[in-house]
Design brief:
The protein is an all-alpha fold. 73% of the residues lie in helices and 0% in strands. The protein is built from 27 helices and no strands. The radius of gyration is 24 Å and the shape is globular. The mean pLDDT is 93.
């Protein structure tokens, strides 16, 4: 009976109908409390008490058949960000070299660790095995998932041509799928090709049978720096009674406002959930520590920013696996130290660098393991030791496109101090090809343009510098008073160049 419940739950899981699937997995476990696979799928679908559900599945995996045991260990240890996930995934592929799912899991695990080449090899093997087996039923389009993961990996590895090739392969294999069009739209936007991005976006909307992801369109618009469009499209979301829509609209509009230097309006939005003069939000607005800290930092109040980041660091979600706990501590300590460096408290930054190193070594995520180098670089740069700071900053890079963009920015600043502007350009440009609302939110695109203009000018490339100065002038057209002098400086440089 337990197996029958499990099979019915598995069909529902891949349908996908998780409500039915979870009920069936629960029924299977009620019949047989040692059923490891049922516990595994139940854990994958559990949001509340996820830690406890995963711990149960990992415990039951010890008595499961070998293939099931390795699958549960590799996948759930990865979800828990445990460094041991890598060995489990490698063991799975070694013992089952024809198992596509094993290689897909290995690819994801290597990607978390920052082994881009190793992850590509694993994903390609998974795709090949799935194509040979034509495994599209009952588990959905496994090949589609593989192509999607591979394309995402190439974004991290800063190879937009490879992203496009992967999306085209996906379309060749499954021309009815919307995901490759979404990928092509995002790649074109990150390349600065607005016409292609919007054309691919239209294909994505046409290929999507259900409600298209509005957030995807707005992220593309943000990447293209169409801030007025983002504001117009986000305002109706803010007025929605759906919490997901209101939260998404607020999150993306805050990014647009920060990029435009409209920090007073951003602060009002954080407090009320709406812009001034708009209908009050129907969804309660909680404290957004990340955006509160960023607005404070960009408003010239790094002490307040450090307080917000530190409050978030200390308010960790309950009952997390050791790897997730380590990731939370490493990342939020990094953010706190970044703000403290702006305050000038290098002693606290040095102490937090040791904290970040301790926790980073206990996290699977490559960025966490390297982040302490960034903090040590900040201390060295503050003391004027820019040669040494550059070495530390480079050691901190997890991904030039989708890593912590503050690393790119501070690395470029030190390179300019050392009169190495071409190298500064090389580390700043990838940051403009990153994800607008992931780790890239910690420096605005406008600030990147401003520093790129300076670097290009120092490198003797005035036309390239002018393109970035124009971006600064456009973005800060409605900026708060504190940005006016910087906007005017960019405009004067353009006037000078044209003269």
């Amino acid at each position: 009976m337990a197996w029958r419940f499990y099979e019915e739950g598995l069909r529902a899981f891949f349908a996908p109908d998780w409500q039915v699937a979870k009920r069936m997995m629960g029924a299977a476990l009620k019949e047989d409390s040692t059923f490891a696979l049922a516990a595994y799928y139940d854990a994958v679908m559990t949001e509340d008490a996820a830690y406890e559900a995963r711990q149960r599945a990992l415990r039951l995996a010890r008595g499961a058949p070998e293939r099931d045991r390795l699958m549960i260990l590799a996948d759930l240890l990865q979800k828990d960000q445990e460094p041991a996930a890598l060995a489990a995934a490698e063991d799975w592929t070694a013992k089952y070299p024809d198992d596509a799912q094993a290689f897909a899991t290995l690819g994801s695990t290597r990607a978390f660790a920052g082994d881009w080449a190793g992850a590509v090899a694993a994903f390609e093997r998974a795709i090949l095995l799935d194509l040979e087996a034509e495994r599209t039923v009952p588990e959905g389009c496994r090949v589609c998932d593989g192509y999607g993961r591979l394309a995402d990996l190439y974004f991290w590895w800063d190879s937009l041509p490879a992203v496009e090739r992967t999306a085209r392969r996906h379309l060749d294999a499954h021309p009815d799928q919307p995901l490759p069009w979404a990928t092509l739209a995002l790649a074109a936007a990150r390349a600065g090709d607005s016409a292609s991005a919007l054309q691919h976006l239209r294909h994505y909307v046409a290929a999507t049978a259900t409600r298209p992801d509005k957030g995807h369109e707005l992220r593309i618009r943000l990447t293209l720096e169409d801030y007025e469009v983002v504001e117009r499209e986000a305002l109706p979301l803010l007025a929605s009674s759906r919490e997901d829509d209101a939260s998404m609209g607020r999150w993306l509009l805050l990014i647009a406002l920060r990029n435009q230097g409209r920090l007073t309006e951003a602060a009002h939005l954080l407090r009320t959930g709406q812009l001034r003069g708009e209908t009050p939000s129907l969804v309660p607005v909680g404290v957004d520590y990340i955006n509160q800290a960023l607005v404070a930092l960009e408003s010239g109040d790094p002490s307040r920013a450090a307080s917000y980041f530190d409050t978030r660091r200390r308010g960790e979600p309950r009952a997390q696996a050791p790897g997730l706990h380590a990731r939370w501590r490493a990342w939020n300590s990094t953010l706190t130290a970044t703000a403290l460096a702006a305050v000038g408290d290098t002693l606290a930054v040095r102490q937090l660098a040791d904290t970040v190193q301790y926790w980073g070594e206990r996290s699977l995520f490559g960025r966490d393991r390297k982040a302490h180098h960034f903090l040590r670089g900040l201390v060295l740069a503050a003391a004027g030791h820019h040669d040494e700071a550059v070495r530390e900053y480079r050691a901190a890079v997890h991904s030039y496109t989708l890593g912590y963009t503050r690393v790119n920015y501070e690395l470029a600043r030190s390179l300019l101090f050392l009169d190495r502007p071409s190298e500064a350009v090389a580390v700043l440009l990838p940051a403009l090809r990153g994800e607008i609302d992931a780790a890239n939110i910690y420096v605005t695109r406008t600030e990147l343009h401003e520093l790129l203009a300076r670097a290009y000018r120092r490198a003797g490339l005035p036309d390239s510098a002018a393109a970035h100065d124009r971006a600064v002038v456009r973005a800060w057209a409605r900026a708060d008073r504190r940005f006016i002098s910087r906007r005017q400086a960019a405009r004067q440089r353009l006037t000078c160049c044209m003269g």
